[in-house]
Amino acid sequence: MNRIIKYITISFLSISMVSCDSFLNVDVPDNLIHEEFWSNKDQVDAALNGLYTSLHNNLERFHAWGDVRSSLYKPGSNFSSSYRQFLSHDIYPENHLVSWSPVYISITWINSFLKNAPSTLERDDTFKDSDLQIMMGEARALRALNYFYLVRAFKEVPIVDTPYESDTQEINTAASSEEDVLDFIEADLAVALEKTAESFDNVNLQYGRFTKNAVRALWADVKLWRNQYQEVLDLTERLDQQYKNSMVAPLDWFTIFNPGNSSESIFEYQYVQTGLGSPLYNWFSQGQRGDARFLANITNISVNAGELLYPPIDDKHFSADTIRLKNFSAFMLDPRFETSNGTGYEVYKFTGQTAYQLSYRPAGSRNANYIFYRYREILFMQAEALAMLGRYSEAESRINIIREHTDLPQIEAGGLSDGVDFMNFLLMEREFELGFEGKEWFAAVRVSRRSGYENILIEKASNNSALGDSYQVIRARLLEPEAWFLPYHETEIETNQMLEQKDYYKNK
């Protein structure tokens, strides 16, 4: 194997910007000559940029794992059978979307960075330890993010904390318990919060790299998954201080998505016109060809949205803002959006240039950022935590902040009841604000795993099938909570001798 391949592998192709397919075909380096690669600060910078680039290569999986099983989605014309399994809640181990291999490639390269980047200090006198420590914090946060997607999707997953640096090295690792993986994530986040930068002067770095606020947002999400509600509030208190007076005005809401990096942003994957192409456009744009992969599920909209709660802004236009009525940022119902499964709404917020006018970004637009965290999601996290602590009036106040910034009526004190009724409403509010941003299945699973809330996910999915599957069929497929998580891909079982398929999926 030649040295160019070795070193490009370590830097995650951050300079050469190749396609996802060719990226995944690059071999893992064998017997790396560390002193030749980790010799100066520029190479460490390139390696760190590569770790961020790896997020792009995993977005398809992250999005499928975290969102596509929610009742938001309907097939577009460019829809595959792999995604159809997700919508029908009938997923098989051979489905390529459940392969975690690209994510573990990212993790092992992060491990290599954590092991080898410090050695550069001995070889480059201009490389400051303070700069290295910030980078090490970011690498820890990126590893935590990758593992958080894995544990929410699969529950039990292998923990790999050493780099894969030789063709002859074998990594056969049993799946660790969910609690052990979450402990590992939190250990990384504790280091990351200490080491990462408070901010960056460059706007693309400020929202495109892990800062302390981005670490706090991710850690609060982890705490909410673990049902540690007071810790959620403690971690997000600092976020309130920065963002509560920086929310965009109601009529400026579309700037959150175009151009992105709004004053509410916490962490976004950055796309620029000359770099890697954003997948969002091809996922959601009908454009002139009508070939979107995903449309918005009208069944979900009609079941969950009423004009009393989500009044239209006028008689002429559906809102293109997800929380302002019923079309999840669709601009209009259009004959082009007819599919074999009926009609759906186009998801416009990632593909349009402005609200209330059918004006698309240039075809194949590369610069639609992928939003991992923004402040309104933090408010929903707080509302969920407060409700679980029985502090419903405070939870309502968080939702009302969002409604105030979308010109929606305020919720009256006590107007949402409590318990299951409140959580059903909260999930609906989340969908209409955060729809198609990648985590609404995770949110439904998180809530439904709590005692007394088990039926929320099952009822929601069973009533809102985008494929027209009957209530009884979907309910039967989801009665076992193990079905809320994914199977291990058949290839992973074959290559990792210590990994055993989950009982629920053994006969599939």
UniProtKB/TrEMBL annotation:
Entry-linked PROSITE patterns: PROKAR_LIPOPROTEIN
Location(s) in or outside the cell: Cell outer membrane
Keywords: Cell outer membrane, Membrane, Signal
Top-level taxonomic group: Bacteria
A Pfam family matched in the record: SusD-like_3
Coiled-coil positions: none
Domain SusD-like N-terminal positions: 23-222
All residue ranges annotated as the RagB/SusD domain in the record: 338-505
Family: Belongs to the SusD family.
Name of the protein this chain belongs to: RagB/SusD family nutrient uptake outer membrane protein
Organism expressing this protein natively: Albibacterium profundi
Lineage: Bacteria, Pseudomonadati, Bacteroidota, Sphingobacteriia, Sphingobacteriales
